[in-house]
Amino acid sequence: MQPRISMITLGVRELAASVKFYEEGLGFPRMDSPPEVAFFTLNGTWLGLYGRDALAEDATVSAEGSGFAAVSLAHNVPSEEEVDEVMNQALAAGATLVKQPQKVFWGGYSGYFKDPDGHLWEIAHNPHFWVGPVDEDN
User: Fold this and answer.
1) Domain that holds residue 45
2) Which residue intervals define the domain VOC in the entry (predicted)?
């Protein structure tokens, strides 16, 4: 098996509001889809494995109860300035700031926001590696 995540599906409370957040607010390209679901094309996905308690601590949320669902999605960018730009775009679209972008212990720069349904997103610059756009042929 070639390791990959083909689709990440987020459960949302209000489909129309979430579609607006991701399509209009963040600029995700929407695909044709039935009215009860919305699909967006993304430029590949990454999977990170990190200790539950450590990830909650990094995001400054509780690892217990409704404060942390043990999952975060990450959007990595090539510079600290772009972290700030993407974070500002998400906040302008209606996201909630969880952790202001800042230098972090692993040598990068990152911050966290929650989408309208509380899904946790990390926006990060990792100076140790940058993959860039995914080659769709691989």
Assistant:
1) 15-125
2) 4-126
